[in-house]
Every structure is written in C-alpha cells, then in structure tokens.
Design goal:
A two-stranded parallel sheet has the order 1-2. The protein has five helices and two strands, in the order αβαβααα. With about 130 residues, the protein is mainly α. The relative contact order is 0.09. Strand 1 (about 35), helix 2 (about 45-50) and strand 2 form a beta-alpha-beta unit. Helices cover about 45% and strands about 5% of the residues. It has two domains: about 1-80, no CATH class; about 80-130, no CATH class. It has helices at about 10-20, 45-50, 80-90, 95, 105-130; strands spanning about 35, 55-60.
C-alpha cells in the first residue's frame, strides 16, 4: 500500500492484508497462520485488524525487551532481512529513492516496474549459470 509518510502503519494494516498478492501457504489442519509485527502495532486497532483476518499475531509489547539470541529456538529465526534486502534493491532506482511522482498510482506503478526488473535480472543471472 502506498500512503504518505504521516500515515500511521496501523491504519494501513487492513488494506495491506487485503492486498496481499501471494497467498500464504495452507497450514496443516488446526495450525494457525502467523504474522510478525513490530511494536507500532501494539494497540487496539492493530489487534482488532489482525483478529479480523484470523491470524495469530506476534507483537512485541511496548516496554518489552528483545529475547537474547542464545535463548531463541534456532529453528525459528527472524526473517526481517528479506524485507530490508528488497527495499535496499529498490533504493537503487532513483525515481523511487527520491519520490518524483506526485500521484500515488504513478508511484505504485514505478514500484511494480522496479520489482519486475529486479526479478527479470535475477532470472537472467540464473539462466546464464545453467
């Protein structure tokens, strides 16, 4: 979802969950679907939205400290680096780094074009290896 920098994340949570392009894998029968969120979603609006979609939210409470790496289960590593890596790739596109597009639809189109170019280049590299 595209919005101004002054819009809080919890106001976009419902629209983001509705606009998910890739469907989550079907869990085993009886297993919940999990969603990891940061402290910004620790409020009634965020909790209600997550409950509306029937997913189990993992939100670190405000004031709660992080669990030490030694205390974590090694099979349950955080995967936030995927998002940060992708944003890093998109920041190489100057039109996205400095937002020149005034209309949200134009900006969203640029983001989609940049993502398509990233995947096209990745496929080209994978094909050249084989």
């Amino acid at each position: 979802m595209v919005a101004g920098a002054n819009v809080h994340d919890t106001k976009l949570l419902e629209a983001t969950l509705e606009a998910t392009v890739v469907a989550a894998p079907t869990p085993r029968p009886g297993a919940p679907i999990h969603l990891c969120l940061d402290k910004g979603y620790d409020n009634p609006t965020g909790r209600e939205t997550v409950a509306l979609f029937g997913v189990t939210a993992h939100v670190r409470r405000i004031g709660e400290e992080a669990v030490a790496a030694a205390d974590r289960d090694p099979r349950k590593r955080p995967r936030r680096w995927v998002v940060e890596r992708t944003i890093g790739w998109l920041n190489r596109c100057r039109a996205l780094l400095v937002r020149y597009a005034k209309k949200a639809d134009n900006y969203l189109g640029l983001i989609q074009l940049a993502c398509a170019l990233l995947w096209f280049r990745r496929l080209q590299r994978l094909r050249s290896r084989t």
